[in-house]
Design a protein that fits this description.
Elements: H1 16-26, H2 34-47, E1 51-55, H3 58-68, E2 76-80, H4 85-93, E3 97-101, E4 123-129, H5 138-147, E5 151-155, E6 163-164, E7 167-168, E8 175-179, E9 192-196, H6 199-209, H7 231-241, H8 244-262, E10 268-269, E11 285-289, H9 297-306, E12 312-313, H10 322-326, H11 336-344, E13 345-348, H12 356-370
Parallel strand pairs: 2-3, 2-4, 4-5, 5-8
Antiparallel strand pairs: 1-9, 6-7, 8-9, 10-11, 11-13, 12-13
Helix pairs in contact: 1-7, 2-7, 3-4, 3-6, 8-12
The protein binds pyridoxal-5'-phosphate.
Pyridoxal-5'-phosphate (PLP) is lined by residues 57-59, 83-84, 86, 129, 155, 157-158, 179, 181, 192.
Length: 371
Amino acid sequence: MSGFIPVNEPVLDGNEKKYLAECIDSGWISSEGPFVREFETKFANRVGRKHGIAVCNGSAALDAAVAALRLQPGDEGIMPTFTTISCASAITRQGGIPVLVDCDPATWNMDSSAVESRITSRTKAIMVVHLYGLPVDMDPVIEVAMRHDLRIIEDAAEMIGQTYRGKPCGSFGDLSTFSFYPNKHVTTGEGGMLVTDDDHLAERCRSLRNLCFGPARFVHEELGWNFRMTNLQAAVGLAQLERLDEFVARKRHSFARYMTLLADLDGMQLPVACTEYADNINWVFGVVLKDDVRMDAREAMKRLTELGIGTRPFFWPMHEQPVFRKMGLFTGERYPEAERIARRGFYLPSGVALTDDQMVRVADALRRALA
Ligand SMILES: Cc1ncc(COP(=O)(O)O)c(C=O)c1O
């Protein structure tokens, strides 16, 4: 057996070095450099949006999105319990209250049919989060949002290059956000982006990203953040974006290979390959141990590590987060599907660099780990 197979490895052998050298040679390394604007424009075009606002990471993009929509203390934002902390913290940092929805047992995404039942007179927004490989079923969400006059924040961090009924993910929110962490289909090391068609929201996000400097510099009407992306990050992002189609093709290929290699393994729920609205883009290849398997995800992951295979656990639900419990949120709330997959789910090596040989080794190791 040769070498540990990491859960993710980025591919950086396109124009990354060339564009980075341009930054160094020209001295443009801060957020003022020309790659930032070019990356924003090209990324927004790719998603079919009017504006792109590059920021320092995907969590910051969510913070800026919630602040830009002016959520007030006590306002409610409906969101999945099964997601990453950045989604809920963006709402609570503005004094808002996350109102949770359980996930669909097959796709693991927020159950769109449950959203309307969570609306109250204080609901202001719905935060949809596309997870792992498939988008949220957007049509019912959009219909409910329109009928109740709610804003949509679309967290498309994991869905770069994915579509919903043929339209790009990231084209559905009043504000949509992305992450460029190295496990994403386009990476800048650390980085993020907001996209929108709304001129006013775009302007507001630009201001929030840049400490809300007023027309008179160093005079501020409001508090923002320094969420700026550097020219160095944007240079890498641009080179990555040039190869997005190739990366997506690789990810879809890995998905098909894993599905074939693991088809005869009894103890696991595999991801849904396609729905009527999208084919799985395989951001990560998640698996959920079936109830009759006598180990949990933690034990399976430990065994896989010993066999040289990197894995990561599924998200831990928001209603079970100690930090939110301490804030008095979600007391007594239960979301059985999220609780089940959080305990029994994990994901396999899934990066763009993953090879066919590595996938064969992962499948063999899984067979041994579950034996
Ligand atoms: C769905 C989702 N939203 C937000 C984020 C946060 O992005 P970042 O790590 O760039 O802050 C992530 C990170 O992986 C994510 O998966």
